[in-house]
Design a protein that fits this description.
By secondary structure, this protein is α/β, with parallel strands linked by helices. 49% of the residues lie in helices and 16% in strands. Helix 2 packs parallel to helix 5.
Length: 180
């Protein structure tokens, strides 16, 4: 795996983060016994620029106002959608060049899913490079510049998000997946 000209395969997680890659993991995986603020600071653990970290915390609170309201609250007591917002904000605290998002809508209520995809769209508009793995293909492809459809671990279709949404073969796959 080569990222930004460097082989990152097998490197320690902190080394990969140091190269500019951050992960929003499946099922959120916030630190439940830490506060919202502590979770955000954990996302910036490799940064030594305390003033800029404090500014980024305020920027995250501006982007996610509910997190500001709950800054002192334990992350494990947040709703699923709030935990997802915290996981995104924590990843952004490392100032990544590439944001990896693994199933950000998994297990969330439909209204929260809409909000999460709005956040992804806003991040992209702000210039973030995002690699999104998502079973909610319709929402993901509406945002994607480039998409890949995998079936049983193999790429079966690829193209722009718009092309894949218009592809009858892809449409059948998405419909079949929703029936399972």
């Amino acid at each position: 795996i080569v990222f930004d000209g460097a082989d990152i395969a097998g490197r320690a997680p902190h080394a990969i983060v140091g190269r500019g890659v951050a992960l929003v993991p499946e099922n959120r995986l916030v630190f439940p016994g830490m506060s919202v603020l502590e979770n955000l600071l954990a996302g910036a653990y490799q940064r030594g620029d305390k003033k800029a970290v404090a500014e980024d915390v305020e920027r995250m609170f501006g982007r996610f106002p509910r997190l500001k309201e709950r800054a002192a609250q334990l992350a494990g007591t947040l709703s699923g959608g709030e935990q997802q917002m915290l996981a995104v904000a924590r990843a952004l605290m490392s100032r990544p060049k590439l944001l990896l998002m693994d199933e950000p809508s998994l297990g969330l209520a439909p209204l929260v899913v809409e909000e999460i995809f709005r956040i992804v769209a806003d991040l992209h508009k702000d210039g973030a490079t995002i690699f999104l793995v998502e079973q909610n293909a319709f929402h993901a492809l509406k945002l994607a510049h480039r998409g890949y459809v995998m079936v049983n671990g193999r790429i079966t279709l690829s193209g722009s998000g718009r092309e894949l949404l218009a592809n009858p073969q892809a449409s059948l796959l998405f419909h079949w997946k929703s029936l399972r």
